[in-house]
Write a structure and sequence with these properties.
By secondary structure, this protein is mainly beta. About 15% of the residues lie in helices and about 40% in strands. The strands form 4 sheets. Strands 3-2-1-4 form a 4-stranded antiparallel beta sheet. The chain has a 3-stranded antiparallel beta sheet with strand order 5-6-7, covered by helices on one side. A 3-stranded antiparallel beta sheet has the order 9-10-11, covered by helices on one side.
Length: about 180
């Protein structure tokens, strides 16, 4: 959902697959406004070298269809500008998007002074209800935090407003100051 459709920024028109280390795979997508990232560990993976490739959106749909319909093990390889997936008798070859993917790590905060604890189920159900009245074009939902509540609102000029409040645990994480002699 966060893959770009902008043809002028072709390197964002896919998902960036990167080997984090020997057994971890990172998948990143951005359209310039949102960023999606997932890091998965696979004990069966054994990357011998660091890879970073951009798989186009259409190719990802084909990969998904093949994986969902197959009961066999899936083998992947990158050879030149091709992503190769093999499962049973099927072989899928996808031409990779050439270009340099932006440094996504610079947009992910490393230290956050706030810590918020909230029930996943409560947040998800509130988001589903509030998103019904979100503007269809922007799909914007506003989060407003206070010391004990989260207010989630959306606005659609044609349909009206939606507002939900959720109890939460909100604390300011103290900075650790290390003093050396």
């Amino acid at each position: 959902y966060s893959v770009s459709n902008d043809e002028t920024r072709y390197h964002l028109n896919g998902v960036y697959f990167e080997s984090a280390d020997k057994n971890n795979l990172i998948m990143v997508a951005t359209d310039g406004h949102r960023l999606s990232l997932i890091k998965k560990s696979f004990s069966e993976l054994n990357f011998t070298e660091k890879i970073g490739v951009i798989i186009p959106k259409k190719g990802l749909f084909e990969i998904k269809k093949l994986i969902e319909s197959s009961t066999d093990e899936v083998y992947i390889a990158v050879e030149g500008s091709q992503f190769i997936l093999r499962s049973g008798t099927y072989v899928l070859m996808i031409r990779l998007i050439e270009g340099k993917y932006p440094n996504y790590q610079q947009f992910i905060p490393q230290k956050l002074p706030q810590k918020i604890v909230i029930s996943r189920e409560v947040l998800l159900s509130s988001l589903k209800r509030v998103s019904l009245l979100a503007n269809q074009k922007s799909k914007a939902i506003l989060f407003s935090f206070s010391s004990s509540k989260l207010e989630i609102t959306s606005n659609n000029p044609e349909l009206g407003d939606a507002k939900e409040e959720i109890d939460l645990e909100y604390t300011l994480v103290p900075e650790v100051l290390i003093v050396s002699p």
